[in-house]
Structure formats: C-alpha cells, structure tokens
From TrEMBL:
<dbReference type="InterPro" id="IPR029787">
    <property type="entry name" value="Nucleotide_cyclase"/>
</dbReference>
<dbReference type="Pfam" id="PF00672">
    <property type="entry name" value="HAMP"/>
</dbReference>
<feature type="domain" description="GGDEF">
    <location>
        <begin position="356"/>
        <end position="487"/>
    </location>
</feature>
<dbReference type="InterPro" id="IPR035919">
    <property type="entry name" value="EAL_sf"/>
</dbReference>
<keyword id="KW-0973">c-di-GMP</keyword>
<feature type="domain" description="EAL">
    <location>
        <begin position="495"/>
        <end position="748"/>
    </location>
</feature>
<dbReference type="GO" id="GO:0007165">
    <property type="term" value="P:signal transduction"/>
</dbReference>
<feature type="domain" description="HAMP">
    <location>
        <begin position="271"/>
        <end position="323"/>
    </location>
</feature>
<dbReference type="GO" id="GO:0071111">
    <property type="term" value="F:cyclic-guanylate-specific phosphodiesterase activity"/>
</dbReference>
<dbReference type="Pfam" id="PF14827">
    <property type="entry name" value="dCache_3"/>
</dbReference>
<dbReference type="Pfam" id="PF00990">
    <property type="entry name" value="GGDEF"/>
</dbReference>
<dbReference type="InterPro" id="IPR050706">
    <property type="entry name" value="Cyclic-di-GMP_PDE-like"/>
</dbReference>
<dbReference type="InterPro" id="IPR029150">
    <property type="entry name" value="dCache_3"/>
</dbReference>
<dbReference type="Pfam" id="PF00563">
    <property type="entry name" value="EAL"/>
</dbReference>
<dbReference type="GO" id="GO:0016020">
    <property type="term" value="C:membrane"/>
</dbReference>
<dbReference type="InterPro" id="IPR043128">
    <property type="entry name" value="Rev_trsase/Diguanyl_cyclase"/>
</dbReference>
<dbReference type="InterPro" id="IPR003660">
    <property type="entry name" value="HAMP_dom"/>
</dbReference>
Length: 755
C-alpha cells in the first residue's frame, strides 16, 4: 500500500509539473509575442516619412500624427522623445478609461535616457500613474543620424491577465513589489479587485508562502522603477488530481481482496499508469520547445485515456492560438497579404543568402485620402484591396506585401533596370481599368520608388529606407516611378532641416518679398504688383518658394507664413504711399488658409492695423485650391469679398475646375497661366485658348492678366485681343522693393518726358 501510495504521489507531482511547464511555456510565448508585435510596429512607425516631417513641428500636428499611428494597433501608450531626451509626445489611457489623454510627463525630461545608448530598438517596462506598460521604442532617423525615439505600449492589466489565463487554463495575476517586502496586486484574471489585499493568493506565491491547496509557479517579468514585476500562475490541486486519487482508492480496494492478487495488479497498474504519465511528460517537454506536430497516443476509456485526450485538445488549442497570433503578426488584416514584418524577414533572408540580388519597389496609391474623405472609408478600403489583388496577379513570384494604409511593396528577383522599368509599366496597365466603387468609377494609380540590393543597400531596413526615399521623390516630382539615387538622401536631410528652420525664418529676418510689376496694356503704365516670397537662408543661401511652400502646408506653418507675407505687403504699401507711389499689391494665399476658420478675422485685423484701403491688396488663389473642397472654399472666399477685399484666380487653366464652379467664385480677376502664353504668338491652339478665355472672362465681368510675357510680339498680340494686364520678364523681373520703387519712378519720369 505504501509503495502504491508513493507511486501515485509521484504521478501527481509529474502531472502538476507537466501542467505548470505547459502553462509557463504558453504564458511566455504569448507575452513575448506581444512584445515582438510592439517592437515591429514601433520600427514601422519610425520609418513613416509623414511622422518625420512633423516631428519637430507644432505640438498639435505631431500629437495628431502620433495618435493616428497609436490607433492602428489600439495601443494604450504612445511616446516620442527627441534627441535632447525631452518628451515631446505622450498619450495614454488606463483600463478604467477608454479616452486617450495627454501624458503627465509631456515636455518633461525622459527618466531613462540610458535605454537609447545602443541606438537600437528596445523593449522595456514603464510605470506611469501607478500602471505598468509593456513599451517598445524605435529610433527615428534622418539619414544615419538618430533625431529621436518613437514608442508604443500596452498596459499590463486585467485584460492581459484574462487572455493569458485563457491560454494557460490557470489563474494569472500580475504583482508589483513595494517597500517592506510587500506586493501589490496589479492585475488579475480572477474576479477579485486588483490593487488590494482582497486576493492574497498571488501575494502568498511570490512571497514564498503559498497555499498548500494550490499548485503554482511565478515568473519574473523584469524591473520597473526599481520594483520587481512578477506573474503568479496557479490552480487547484484537488480539481487537477481528482481522477488520479480515484485510481488510488481502486487499487487499495483490490489489495484488500488478496495480497498476491494485489501485488500482481499493483505491478500491472503501476506500469499502465507510469508509462502514460511519462509519455505525457515527454510530450509536455516537446511542446515546451515549441513543437506541436505530434499528439499523445494513449488508448482506453479510463481516466488516463481521458486525460490524454484532454491533453491533446489543450495542445491543439495552444497551436491554433499561436498560429493566429503569428498570422496577425505577419499578415495585413484588410488584404491578407504579408505585412511589413514579413517583408523585412524576407529581405533579410535574401540579403543573407548571397543571392544575385533583388529590387524592392515601394508603392503608394494616389488620392486615397480624397476617396476616404468624399466616398467613405469602405470605398477607400475597396480600392486598397483591389490594388493588392491586381499586384498579386501581376507578380508570379507572389512576393507582394501590404505595409499598411495605402502602401504596398513588391520584391522582384532581378536588378536589371530594363526589366524593372518594364514591370513598372505593366503595373500602370494592370491598374488602368477603373474600379466601380459606390457608383463612382475610380481610376487606380500609384507612385512608386525602387532600390536594389546589394547595390543600393545590403540589409533589409536600409533597402526599405532607400526605396521609401525614392517614393517620396516620385510623389514630389509627380512621376509614376523613380529609382533610388544617392543624392536623394541629401535632399531628404535637407527637407527635414528646412522643416525645423522655417519656423525660425518666419520669426527672424530671413524672409523677403520681391515684387513683379503688372503692366496696364492699354495705358502703358504700372498700377499693380505681385508680391513673391524669397527665403535667404543663413547657410543654404536663397531658397525658392517651391522648395518650402509645400513644407509649410504639410507641417501646419502655412498660416503663420501667409500672415507674415500679408503684413509685410501691407507695410510696403504704406511705405510706397509715403513716396507718392499708389500701387495695388497681389498676395498669394494657400488652399490651407481657406480651411482656417479665423482667416477672415485675421485679414480684418491686418487691414485695421495698417489703415489700408480695401483695394490696397489683392488675394490670389489657384483654381486647384478650390477644387479640393469647393463648398467650404467658395464660402470662405465669399466672406472675404464681403469685407471688400479683391480676389484673383491664379494659374487659370492648370487645375481641374469646371466652368460651373468658376462662375460661382466671387473673384475680380483671372490670370492666364504662362504655359498658355509662352508660345501664344506662334501656336494657333494656344491662341484659341487664350482668346476664348479673355472673351469669357470679360463676359463674366472679370479683368484678365496674362503671365509669362517674354517678348514684344506676345505683348502686342495680347493687347490686340483685349487682355487688360501683362506680367513677365519682358516687362520686369521680380526684384526687392527698393529696386522696384526706383524702377517705377524712372518709368514715370520717362512717361512725363514723352507727354
């Protein structure tokens, strides 16, 4: 009897060890997968060019961008630290609150700068307002230089504990060490309230005084703010070992019949029990190493057979959960295509294999935001899925990846330039048939940039960065696709530098207005000028407006820039009035200005501050600015006209506005773009366009200005067609106010002398 009892006790302990070993393996796998997922996403966000552009912009713009990335994985904590270890972005939420709040450490020094010493992605535990977060940081780089760190995290809370309890089949608690060898219940899967002594089980386990009625283990998860974070895993001994103890009673009854028969039966039964249990132990060890391809083969309808069956079911459940987690980690949920994590894995394998080389294409679908804003996100998602489907049909190797949002990547197993260009051309053809979405025919178009390995980069991260740089240039230059070139890195660094320098330029004395005259063709005099902004950078010299206007619009600085231009033009107007030069100055405004609800009030303040007559300044707006949101744009322009301010449509003919929209615009003037004027003297088609535009504008009561006059013949022809004003190098190049003022005075003297 003693021998049987000891054998049964040993089997009990083996069963407990098996259950704890399996639960520990499942727990650690699930917990580490969450950490890997956070790290992969932080690295993905840190590569986003849009996030880099607003990294040092105004806090609101950056926090919006940071929160947009947080929403993608529903993170509980978002972090941004600049290279001076200042927290410039901290958004968080707790289990009790679904609303995201600005973190209490915003604009404070980061407490753990040593985490960033290796300049690599790092995963840590972080304590914030009594809550612990799993947090992963990734470096944000400009070229090879780290300019800051981006991090995202999930809270270690009851939801995590419950998920892990479901995976392990046991109770799970998280505990945080406190002063005096005390432990705080941080979170639990059980119904007890966390953070109080109401549920002492986990505290007893980590303190080394466990309840003998439980089987248990504890796992150290790391240190946070010099406090240990541990997980306690436990279950009831009685419920687990009930079947084995029933076996013991049966053996004792059999032993009472006859000692000899009991010995024989004991011998036989010990073999039938220990062998299956040993097989279960071996199988648990096999599973603990991450293998799920075999099951326990114990036949019979007894308790051990049932236990083996339950063990196999548990093994399959763990396998299904792990497969689901791995799939979510490597595949995009919208298109079911491999994601950025899979792309980097594949590229690393290719780079390490010594293959002849490959080409990585980074593609971005055009006009996705417009489709989302106008037709809704369902239609936008339909467009994204269709592009993924067509790309998959085109690439026979099936090496298509969906990086998120409207971005895709393709790996071509060639570095031949002609083959890559041919494939890009085929992409345009495959995407050419329109997609019908929400009753609207959607034209599918992409921008693409590509880089080659090993010529352009020898590792996955760098190759993706080079392709992304080429993509940014293809967008900027409005090209379908562009190859990576080394000089693009310098351009990217220069753009990032301009983002930071522009704010300083607006506040200091680096900006300057040049003025270009508009000639009254009939009278032969100049009464109007256009103000054109220039930037005298202290290190880079004169920077043209095309290089920084777009940056100002993207980073939210365009309102401050426009305000500076209008104020400077107003000041110069008054200065010329004192010199007895009565001139009207045209100032360009952006489509982004029309989205500013305070814009009309700001204009009124400037007119009052400088005591301007209403016709002192004219505001010029391009027709493409009206196309993007015609209803609100026209409404804003009507408010401006109601104030008495003159308006002009700039670059007419280059946008996509309809005549129906044009007739609704409250404008006084129409400017014909230089692309129609350059060759108008010799090109019959341009003559038809310009002549009909002048006639149409006059019929609508608008005056007409022609831009880009380069010779006397063009000026004469425009005068014959009834064009009101002319602007171009033939009349005068743009020049600083002092030079233009002198030029106007000399021209007035010449007119007086000839009178």
């Amino acid at each position: 009897m003693v021998i049987i009892y000891k054998a049964n006790s040993k089997q009990e302990q083996q069963q407990i060890d098996l259950r704890l070993e399996s639960a520990t393996s499942a727990f650690q796998n699930q917990y580490q997968q969450r950490s890997y997922y956070l790290q992969a996403f932080a690295e993905t966000a840190a590569k986003d060019f849009g996030l880099k552009e607003v990294f040092d912009a105004d806090a609101r713009s950056f926090l919006i961008a940071l929160n947009n990335h947080r929403k993608r994985i529903d993170a509980d904590l978002a972090f941004a630290v600049n290279r001076k270890n200042l927290i410039i972005g901290q958004l968080f939420r707790t289990s009790a609150e679904s609303k995201v709040k600005l973190g209490p450490e915003q604009n404070n020094q980061f407490r753990f700068p040593q985490w960033f010493d290796a300049e690599k992605a790092t995963s840590q535990l972080y304590l914030l307002e009594g809550q612990v977060y799993q947090l992963s940081f990734a470096p944000l780089k400009s070229g090879q230089q780290v300019v800051g760190w981006i991090g995202y995290g999930y809270q270690v809370n009851g939801s995590l504990a419950q998920n892990l309890a479901n995976v392990t089949g046991l109770n799970v608690e998280f505990l945080l060490s406190k002063a005096g060898d005390r432990w705080l219940n941080l979170a639990a899967a059980s119904p007890y309230t966390t953070g109080s002594p109401a549920n002492p089980m986990g505290q007893l386990i980590v303190s080394g005084n466990p309840d003998p009625t439980t089987f248990h283990t504890s796992i150290s998860l790391g240190e946070v703010d010099q406090q240990d974070l541990k997980a306690a895993i436990y279950g009831s001994r009685s419920s687990l070992l009930e079947t084995l103890r029933q076996n013991l009673w049966q053996l004792m009854v059999v032993e009472g019949v006859t000692i000899l028969l009991a010995l024989v039966i004991a011998y036989n039964l010990s073999g039938t029990i220990s062998k299956p249990v040993k097989e279960l132990v071996r199988q648990a060890q096999y599973i603990a190493r991450g293998n799920y391809d075999s099951s326990v083969n114990i036949t019979g309808k007894n308790e051990l057979g049932q236990l083996a069956q339950e063990f196999n079911l548990m093994q399959q459940a763990v396998l299904v959960r792990e497969q689901k987690i791995n799939h979510q980690l490597r595949y995009n949920s919208l298109t079911n295509l491999p994601n950025r994590y899979s792309l980097l894995e594949t590229l690393e394998e290719l780079c390490a294999s010594g293959s002849p080389g490959c080409t990585l294409l980074h593609l971005d679908i055009r006009r996705t935001k417009t489709v989302n804003d106008t037709l809704g996100y369902d239609t936008g998602n339909l467009m994204i899925k269709e592009v993924g489907k067509r790309l998959s049909e085109l690439n026979k190797e099936k090496m298509i990846f969906h990086l998120g949002a409207d971005e895709f990547a393709v790996i071509l197993m060639t570095t031949d330039q002609m083959q890559v260009v041919t494939w890009c051309n085929n992409v345009e053809k495959f995407l050419d048939p329109p997609l019908c979405g929400d009753g609207v025919m959607l034209h599918l178009q992409v921008h693409a940039g590509f880089a080659k390995a090993p010529m352009d980069a020898g590792n996955a991260q760098l190759l993706l960065q080079k392709a992304d740089t080429a993509l940014s240039h293809s967008k900027r230059e409005m090209k379908a696709f562009l190859p990576y070139k080394a000089e693009m890195d310098a351009d990217a660094g220069r753009t990032l530098s301009l983002v930071n320098d522009l704010r300083i330029a607006i506040e200091s004395d680096q900006l300057q207005l040049f003025y270009q005259p508009k000639l009254d063709i009939n009278a032969g005099v100049v009464r109007d000028l256009e103000a054109l902004i220039r930037w005298r950078h202290p290190e880079q010299g004169m920077i043209p407006p095309d290089a920084f206007i777009g940056i100002a619009e993207q980073t939210g600085q365009i309102d401050a820039l426009t305000r500076w231009v209008i104020r400077e033009a107003a000041r110069q107007y008054n200065a010329w009035v004192e010199e007895e030069l009565l001139l009207s100055i045209a100032v360009n405004i952006s489509a982004e200005n029309l989205k500013n609800q305070n814009f009309t009030a700001e204009l009124e303040e400037i007119w009052q501050e400088f005591s301007l007559p209403m016709d002192a300044l004219t505001l010029e707006i391009t027709e493409s600015a009206v196309v993007s949101d015609p209803v609100s744009a026209i409404g804003m322009l009507c408010d401006i006209q109601d104030q008495g301010i003159k308006l002009s449509i700039d670059d007419y003919g280059t946008g996509y506005s309809s005549l129906a929209q044009l007739k609704q615009l409250p404008v006084n003037e129409l400017k014909i773009d230089r692309s129609f004027v350059d060759k108008v003297y010799s090109d019959p088609d341009d003559q038809i366009i310009v002549r009909s535009t002048i006639r149409m504008a006059h019929d609508m009561g608008l005056s007409v200005v022609a831009e880009g006059i380069e010779d006397a013949e063009t000026l004469e022809w425009l005068g014959e067609q009834g064009c009101d004003k002319a602007q171009g190098y033939f009349i005068s190049r743009p020049a600083p106010a002092a030079e233009i003022g002198q030029w106007l005075k000399e021209k007035d003297k010449a007119i007086s002398a000839n009178a």
